[in-house]
Each structure stands twice: as structure tokens, then as C-alpha cells.
Amino acid sequence: MFCRWASIVVAKDSVWVSPIVWLFIGLLIGTSIGYTFYQTDIAAYLPHPSGVTQTVTTSAQAPSVVNLMIVPDWGGATYDAFITAANANGSIPKPGTNSTRPGPNDNNVTVPVNQSVTFVITNLDTALNLNFTGNVTLPFTIYNDTASGQVPLSYSIGQSVKLAVSHTFVVTGTDVNIPIPPDTIVTFTTRFTTPGKYLYYCAAPCGPGMNLVGYMQGYINVV
């Protein structure tokens, strides 16, 4: 049957080509064009200010802004989780139980080396899990919702902090140790000077998810 539909019929001086043959030809041409375009950095086609030298590279650039959300009970009761924007689409993992872990959740992020990266963490959790005390090791800003709108509170290096928080954001091998109060948005900017894989985690006692990669733990890939 396939051979009959894919055949080319010659009648006198004309040639009739089966629609399936045209489909195969179109796919081959489209694949070839797509692959060629993929190898060409799209930045070369984007406008940029005059007088500014732009280096065009064929390697993909990692984002300089990382958006994370903290969602309580994402993996079932007590399994809070950091989730990425890509996973905040309603695709909830299989809930965990007292005897089984919840389903997998990919909350790893990739950032560029030797570039400033801003983290924006939106905390949807209203629980109070820890009284955070200490001195600021990295500047950060907390945005609180009030009747007058969002009010930013900024903290600088060395400043003494005492906050009731639901979670923290800590990155091993760095100075990142950020308190995250309930129902807030927290932002900070940092720079990774060495490529590698860095574990981030919550140090507040927030349930079994705090010991689980994909939930209150994840990895930052610096490339």
C-alpha cells in the first residue's frame, strides 16, 4: 500500500508525484533550513545600539534572572518545594505519603559564570518555621504586600537581622544565606566566579521536603 501511494507516475510528457512524496521532500527541506538557522546565533539578527560592539556567539546564553516560587505542600502534605516557572503550570507531582516520597520535581537552574544573576523568590507559604537571626552576608530586598501596595525593605552587608521566616535560601560554598518571610517576594543579586554545580537548600525546619532534592533542595548549574 505504501509503495502504491509513494509512487511517481509518468504519463506521456507529464510527471505526477504522490502527495506523500511531496510531504517527505518538504520535511527534508524544512529540517535542513531549521538546522542551518539553529547553528546561526539569533543575536546577529537583533537590533542593538549604535556604537556598541556586540560579540556574536553560537553558544546559548544562560538567563541572568532566576525566578523561583516556594509552594507549600507541592508534593503532598508537608512537602514544600522550590519550583521553577516552567513547572508552575499545574503539573503537580504525585503526592508523597508517610511511607513514600512524592514524585520527582525538577527545580534545577542554570546561570552564567562571572555575570551578575538576580534571583526573584516568591514565597506563597504563610507558615512561620524559624526565627532567623544573624548578620547580612549578601544584600537583599523583601517586598511585603500592604494596603498601600508593595513595600520594599532592603538589607545591606553586615546589618543585624532578626526575622520570623518560613524558609531560607542557602547556596553551599557561597555567601548566599537569605531569609524568606511568609507571603513575600525576596530578591538578591550574586555572581558565581567558578563554574560547577552548587546545591541550594532551605535551612528552616519546614518538613521532609527540606531534605529532598527537587523540593526544598535543588542545584544551580554555573556554566
Structure explained in plain terms:
This protein has helices at 2-5, 19-39; strands spanning 8-11, 14-17, 65-71, 81-84, 109-111, 116-123, 130-135, 140-146, 149-155, 160-165, 167-171, 177-180, 184-191, 196-201, 217-222. It is mainly beta and 223 residues long. The chain has 2 domains: 2-45; 65-222, Sandwich (Immunoglobulin-like). The strands form 4 sheets. The protein has a 6-stranded mixed β-sheet with strand order 4-3-6-13-8-9, with no helix packed on it. A 5-stranded mixed β-sheet has the order 5-15-14-11-12, with no helix packed on it. It is globular and about 45 Å long. The protein starts with a helix and ends with a strand.
Task: Describe this protein with a few key phrases.
single chain, 2 helices, globular, mainly beta, 223 residues, disordered N terminus, 5-stranded mixed β-sheet, Immunoglobulin-like, 6-stranded mixed β-sheet
